[in-house]
Amino acid sequence: MHIRPLATIIVLAIVALAFSWAGERAMAQEGRQEPPPGAELVIFNGPAGPYNVKITQSPARPIVGTLRVIVEPVDAETGLPVGNALIRVFGTPPEDGERQFSPALNSPTDRTLYFGQLQLEDAGVWTLDIEIDGPLGRAVAIAQTTINERARSGAGTLVGTILFVLISAGFVGGGTWLWYSSKRARERRNAIRQGGSNPRRNSG
């Protein structure tokens, strides 16, 4: 007789968890609009000595690991691209740690684009120093980027596991309740038939 309330509680818990999980995902996506995979983000676009420099990072929302940096220097006076420059990319961690370095090399298809790659293993705000040594002289452009922790899927996996267990328990409980109810109904019908076919003898 306690199976029906148990099944009801399980079903309600499943519904509550499902709504809670969906709400959290919606709020997270609304508050943190993720850029599409492979997107780039301009983190600096302005003057640096005799140059105007555009610095782009990829991915747009970097996580701990590899950060790709694209540098586009142009002559600040003429706006012409600078194709023969020596460019170095430095990454300074948010706390005490090892400063990272990468040369920025020309793109084979576009000599005015310079590509560098840093391996950033600490989450937080990193400072990027772009040193340019070109035909117009030397300059430094400074930008900042936020490196995010890798997404932890444990919470989502835990919720999924709980939902699976509750749903399974709901099916098992519901099936058990149907079997139990059917069994009780058959017993009652059999008892009625037996009572009807075997009337009590009058002892008087």
Can you offer a commentary on this structure?
The protein is an alpha+beta fold. The protein folds into two domains: 71 residues; 107 residues, Immunoglobulin-like, CATH 2.60.40.1930. Helix 1 packs antiparallel against helix 2. The radius of gyration is 34 Å and the shape is rod-shaped. About 5% of the residues have low confidence.
Produce a short descriptive summary.
With 204 residues, the protein is α+β, with helices and mostly antiparallel strands. The protein has two helices and eight strands.
Please give the structural blueprint.
Layout: H1 3-31, E1 41-48, E2 51-58, E3 65-75, E4 86-92, E5 100-106, E6 114-120, E7 124-134, E8 137-147, H2 154-197
Antiparallel strand pairs: 1-2, 2-3, 3-6, 4-5, 4-7, 5-6, 7-8
Helix pairs in contact: 1-2
Structure characteristics:
204 residues, Immunoglobulin-like, 2 domains, 8 strands, 34% strand
Order of helices and strands: HEEEEEEEEH
**CATH uppermost class of the largest domain:** Mainly Beta
Mean pLDDT over the full residue set: 78
CATH architecture of the largest domain: Sandwich
Number of helices: 2
Summed up, the domain count is 2
Q: For the CA atoms, what is the radius of gyration?
A: 34 Å
* Helix percent band: 25-40%
| Biggest β-sheet: strands ordered side by side in the sheet | 1-2-3-6-5-4-7-8
Largest sheet: 8 strands, antiparallel
Record field, number of beta strands? 8
